[in-house]
Amino acid sequence: MIETILQYVIQSTIRSGLYALVAIGFTLIFGVGGVLNLAHGASIVLGAYGAYFAATQGLGIPGAVAAAVVIPAVFGAVMYLTIIRRFEHEPIMVMILTLVVSVAIEQVVLKTFGAQPVAVPQFFSGNFSLGATNVQANQAAIFVLSWALIITLFLFINYTKQGKAILATSMSAKGASLMGIKSSRINLTTWIIAGALAGVAGMALGSQLTANYHLGRNPLVLSFSIVVLGGIGSIRGSVLGAYLIGFLEVGVVEFVSSDLTGIAPLVVLVLVLLVKPEGLYGRELAE
Amino acid sequence: MVNDGNRDWSSSSNGNKNGKSENVGNKRRFGRRPFIKAAGIGAAATGLAGCLGGGGEEAAVPLADRDEIRIGVLAPHPSEDPIGGSIANGAKLAAKQINDDGGLDGTELNVMVKDTAEDPQTGRERYGEFIREEDVDLTTGVFTSEVLLAILEDIAEAQTPHMTAGAATPDASAQVNENYEQYKYHFRTGPINAHHLGVNLVDFMDAKASDLGWETVAVLVEDFTWTEPVSAVLNERLEDTGVDVVMNRRYSSGTSDFNPVYNDVEDSGADAAFVAMAHTGSAAITQWAQQQRPFEFGGIHVPMQLPAYYDLVKGASAYGVTQNSATPQSEVTTPDEVDRGDATVPFAENFMAEYDSYPVYTGYIAYDAVNQFATVVEEQGDLGADPVVTGLEESSYTGTAGTIEYYGQDSDYTHDVVYAEDKVWPVFMQWQPEDPQNPQAGGTQEVIFPDNLATADYQTPPWI
């Protein structure tokens, strides 16, 4: 029994780290820019395939990680500069445009790399035992990477000039602009950071599950659930939401039925919207 | 399936495929052919058939009077997916070779390809386009069982022969069996139907389980339509082989994280995961290899059938076993056996030369389907649906995947390809690394069963 619980805790903790990685970029854009980025899944796909492509070119794990970060980050920047900036005060237009771009990216990936899944390189290979549980080194690496990025993001937001400007813009774009903060530059920064985070999440996901052109769809839905549960716009809430949903999902699959995979986050999404639509931490970063 | 009522070709009152062919029995292509030629053929055909009084006789559509024979191929993502691409290219290669040989009595084959996107509604739309706009004489392909079942009613209404190359559900042949006159236009050239896929798994275990050392197995089957008959057979017969089934699970079709499933397999103490997987297979094999789970892995794993799969998953398929119709190196048939076109290995090599990749199993089947159809048409000298149906029923055609014959009306699987050792008898293959010390470097598909086609002995994964 203790072994089962230990296994559950370890698997849930590792899964939640990945979920947090998937969701924080999504929440960052909403918290600061006030728009929903439905191309978040496309950034995840670009990260996974960027890593795959770099590996096939013989660039090794460092090259794969670099590609997984840089390609989606550039994609985020281009998206913002060419499309989002023109419509950043029209959230519906942004939703439509990001959705269209997302579908287009999927099709480009499909045409370029084919419909068959591809193996994305692992950060680390091999396994080790933790208690009575067999843990992949790659999963553990993703967990550590997730927390490293969360802490780095937290420190960046709270203790750097640029970060404080992001925080200020998220609280009040008008107030921030009165203080001389250029909101467009801040938004561009968040799109780049969110793209890079999604890219890392894509490589992490792909290294566990293999990648295909629609790899980003489930994470997008998952991001919705996590962000709504945590409180739209709250990074802290998103991290907590990722852990709650991670533990819930692994628990449902482990103790109820593996047929219910993927259902728990959707149920949570509906329940939170019905009962506590502001989520656990409200929208602390938003005006 | 509900008729959406928007197909003018289905509204004929005289059994024709559409209203364009009232004078010529049940073929309707003459609206697209030169009028004089059409009128001549129509008059001759109806006269010969003696059906001016509506006697229901099949009108002849003489091969010599045709300017081309049109074949519609339905394939999923033919430009991007090796499974769909193999269907399309297998059919094209057969047509090309026939045309290079002077066609059928001088008439060339014209192959057209449309994308089903593995979606039932899309499949119906593309099938309808073939019938309404392209006037095809034959359709082939269809990989996904759900798509095949969606178009089955349309095939019946169109009264145009269809030779399935890919989908395995026996629900289609059950329809033919139950209502023969309506559904007799459907044939499954391959693979063997899903019931026989299950029987084939049992036959494999019966013959090889002791050699492999698989005394206990955990049965893992993805929850899709095509696996339902597979599960039924395994539940009923697998333990008769002496193998102990210690776990038996149909897992969710949405599964991408196999950790919980594999933990249960480990807990069960099974020697091997005995699987039936297509859509979820890549995540399953990759996680099995990455985690070096202490059980072996084999059964039906559709992605592993791809000749290029080893590189796609960076060697994760090493030591995995899957059933397959044929492999580029397996001499299922030899050149002195085949009736038309190439035998297994020459076909694979010609396919590689033409399309720069080896075919997936669907490629062998689509190639055989077009060649068998051509053989029947040539023998009958007639493109009419009924002569073709009769010809296919009587045909015994040896192609790349074996000798293709179809079950008759008295079988539960009417018009499915016959599963037997001297007919169609799939191979089981294992991906074996070229360098065991560096499994990512490259691997080959080695046949391990049946013994007369074996190219290597089974290898146990080194971590077990």
Please provide a brief summary of the model.
The complex is a heterodimer of chains A (287) and B (464). By secondary structure, chain A is mostly helical. Helix content of chain A is 74%, strand content 3%.
Account of the protein in words:
The complex is a heterodimer of chains A (287) and B (464). With 287 residues, chain A is mostly helical. Chain A contains 11 helices and 2 strands, in the order ααααββααααααα. Chain A has helices at 2-33, 40-56, 60-82, 91-113, 137-159, 161-171, 173-178, 183-209, 217-230, 235-256, 263-275; strands spanning 127-130, 133-136. In chain A, β1 (127-130) and β2 (133-136) form a beta hairpin. Chain A is globular. The mean pLDDT of chain A is 88. In chain B, α3 packs parallel to α4. Chain B is globular, with a radius of gyration of 23 Å. Chain B is 36% helix and 17% strand. Chain B has 464 residues and is an alpha/beta fold. Chain B has a 7-stranded mixed beta sheet, sandwiched between helices. A 5-stranded parallel beta sheet of chain B has the order 2-1-3-4-5, with helices on both faces. In chain B, strands 11-12 form a two-stranded antiparallel ribbon. In chain B, a hairpin with a 4-residue loop joins β11 and β12. Chain B has 14 helices and 14 strands. Chain A binds chain B through residues 7, 11, 15, 55, 110-111, 114-119, 121-122, 125, 127, 134, 136, 138, 208-210, 212, 218, 250, 253-254, 258-262, and chain B through 76-77, 79-82, 84, 223, 249, 251-252, 254-257, 259-261, 263, 282-283, 286-287, 290-292, 303, 306, 309, 312-314, 316.
